[in-house]
Amino acid sequence: MSNLHCGIMPSNPTYKELFNDKLGKYTLCVPPYQRPYVWTLKKAETLLNDWKEYLLSNQYQNGIDYYMGTIIIHKDDVNHKLNIVDGQQRITTLLILDYALNGKSSVIIRYKKQIEIDVKNYNSKKSINAISTFAAKCCKKGGRYEMLKQNNIFQHLRFTVIMTENEDDAFTFFDSQNNRGVQPSAVDVLKAVHLRAIHADEELQKKSACLWEKTQNIGENIFRNKSEEYLNNLIVIALWRLRTWKGSSFYYEASYESVMHEFAEKLEYTGKNNIKVYTVPSSFELLIDSDMKIKKETLSDTNTIKPYPFTVRQPLVKGICFFTFVETYHHIATELFLNDSKDSEISEMRNLFNKLYIETESTHYMSDYFIMLMIFYFDKFGSENLYYFALCIDYIIGQWRTEYYFFRKEAMMNVTQKNNIIDKIQISYESKDIIRDLLEIQIERKHEKAPTNLPIERYKHANFVYFGKEETEDSDFVNNKKEWVRDIIENGKQELFIK
After folding, report:
1. Tally of helices (H runs) and strands (E runs) in the chain
2. What CA–CA distances, in Å, run from 360 to 307, 387, 499?
3. Which whole number is the average pLDDT over 126-138?
4. Are residues 14 and 156 in the same domain?
5. End-to-end alpha-carbon separation of the chain, Å?
6. Tell me, what DSSP letter sits at residue 266?
């Protein structure tokens, strides 16, 4: 049985066809149960920028329309209305921008008797006025979006429209889109955004797409989730947090909007295939002769193994810069936690991780935090003292683990806000600085006697085995572990404790 016979009518109209072909004797409505208009000026500006990039891309040159996503409509034959179930924010925005660009020839003027978008909310009115004023100013002759009007951008917009005569079907389809993966993830959208931003080089686009797919299909996920979730985990769990967890005020969870903002909306589009290179942390020694001239320069060997000279928190630009940025930290992540390594620092760090996190089946909060900190440290110092750094990080995580009966995100949030280790790494000049600082961190004890459960006992037991210590119940585990870690570091590099 066809979709039509089931009452569901899919189509792929252009913006013009959406109104010419679909309206007929019907009125397009935003039902009263829909939320107010919430688009901000910033979000509308992002769309205008994206349209501008599209007009400069091969996609436009090859006659491929700009895709505006899926619209779900309930066709009410009784009242002759087309009720927008999903897509009303986009449709409203397009009507605003269409009027700003095209005035009397815009859809909202031509079909004003067949469009009912009653915006009564004060904030919505304020947003509409701001967006309309901004677009009219910037799209006029001499404005930065003048080309949108010159190239008739609205003739190149296309949708997927799902129309159904049954309101329940409309909401069922809406739920399936938002809850069952039909709606693209931020990672999928990022790929499309940055492929389109690669300028006039189809071969580079193809290679970037292939590299992205190869990374997505790596087959093993160091973040202990499904293999197909690896790339999303790398970007959201590691890179997004490392770039945004600054100071004591930050969000723990990465929303779709926050990921898109960090890796797409805030990025500059240069119109060329470039990456911006900032000062890459490195240390070197200058030997001075008796005339105060440099007689020798000695570079440190930090073994960074970076394919491209990025730093995690540096500004990015759209296009190839994003793909090479992600590839750089994918390379570092897999070198640290997946590939065979001849570097003893990496091997020792990974052995600790496996013994105390993987084999004990620790919570993801613990292992994710450990992984992201190893990536950030390695990004700055390479493998220099990496194992000692790992010991210190585990000492801190171990305090959390043994102090909280349930190790949830709140525990990590509270401690991180008081001791932002990412920031400490960022401002440290030498690896020994951060290692000394970490050993002095001690979280506030909430209990005279630490709580106990099976995960805590498993973690403690693994520590006694790893450090080769006799397991006792009455000892102060946290303070004892600090001494175990300190002994290992002091025996290896006593100078780390000399200030």
Report:
1. 22, 8
2. 33, 19, 36
3. 91
4. yes
5. 79
6. T
Question: What pLDDT is attached to residue 3?
Answer: 40
- 64 within domain boundaries: yes
Distance CA 141, CA 59 (A): 25
Same domain, 368 and 445: yes
Alpha-carbon span 419 to 412, nearest angstrom: 10
What would the two tokens of residue 452 be?
């106990």
> In 27-114, at which residue ranges do the beta strands (DSSP E only) sit?
27-29, 66-76, 81-86
Please check whether residue 147 lies inside any domain of the structure.
yes
The span from the CA of 455 to the CA of 272, in Å, is 52
Binned at pLDDT 50, 70 and 90, residue 483 comes out as: very high
Q: Which two tokens stand for residue 137?
A: 């100013």
Query: DSSP secondary-structure letter at 229?
Result: G
- 283 within 8 A of 301, measured Cβ to Cβ: no
Q: Which residues pair with 28 in a beta bridge?
A: 82, 115
Are the CB atoms for 318 and 223 separated by under 8 Å?
Answer: no
Pairing of strands 27-29, 115-116: parallel
pLDDT at position 86: 82
Q: Which carries the bigger pLDDT value, residue 283 or residue 55?
A: 55
Greatest alpha-carbon span in the chain: 96
Locate 386 and state its tokens: 């990496």
C-beta atoms surrounding 453 within 10 Å: 10
Q: How far apart are CA 223 and CA 327, in angstroms?
A: 17
* Sequence letter at residue 412: M
- Specify whether 25 is located in the same domain as 172: yes
198-244: pLDDT as tens digits: 887 878 988 888 888 889 888 899 999 888 889 999 999 999 999 99
Q: In this structure, what DSSP letter does residue 238 have?
A: I
Res. 296: pLDDT tops 60: yes
DSSP character for 14?
Answer: B
- Structural domain containing residue 256: 184-336
For 360-415, the pLDDT digits (tens) are 999 899 999 999 999 999 999 999 999 999 999 999 999 888 877 777 777 667 77
Nearest alpha-carbon partner for 41 in 139, 124, 153, 145: 124
Residue 195 and residue 318 in one domain: yes
CB-CB contact of 12 with 64 (8 Å): no
Domain count, the chain: 3
CB 67 within 8 A of CB 163: no
